[in-house]
Amino acid sequence: MEEMNLRNYAYVGDAVWELYIREKTVRQTENAKKLHKITTEKVKASYQAELLHGLEEILTDEEKEIARRARNLPIPVARRSNQAEYRQATAFETLIGWWYVYDESRLKEIYTKIEIKF
């Protein structure tokens, strides 16, 4: 399989993460407004940055390197107000995308370790 660039892993990871969260939230309520609120709380940059911080001790050296490189990607101008948080979230999404493409069993393991609470 051909290697993608880090931005593409982040792009895929963003979609995979949102789908994962949506699959969980639809079991919580049928109210569209509540679904949106719950989902947006779990896909925002600050939450993703917090999750990455909690995972750091269990990441392999390769995963840490992917996260480090993703944190160093240039940031769109509109996101610069929360630069550190956005960089962490990008690293989180990049790892999710990378696991999705290369190691779905590791992705499932990470989901289990994260234990999302709704």
If you had to describe this structure to a student in words, what would you say it looks like?
The chain starts with 5 loop residues before the first helix and ends with a helix. The protein is mainly alpha-helical and about 120 residues long. The radius of gyration is 14 Å and the shape is globular. Helix 3 crosses helix 5. It has 6 helices and no strands. The model has no long low-confidence stretch (mean pLDDT about 90). About 70% of the residues lie in helices and about 0% in strands.
Continuous helix count:
6
Order of helices and strands: HHHHHH
| Low-confidence segments | none
Largest β sheet strand count, sense and barrel closure? none
Mean pLDDT: 91
Q: Strand tally, please?
A: 0
Helix content: over 70%
Radius of gyration: 14 Å
Structural class: mainly alpha
* SS strand fraction: under 5%
Global shape:
globular
Compute the separation of the termini in Å. 36 Å
Quick structural gist:
With 118 residues, the chain is mainly alpha-helical. It has helices at 6-25, 32-43, 45-55, 61-71, 83-102, 104-114.
Observed structural traits:
118 residues; mainly alpha; 6 helices; globular
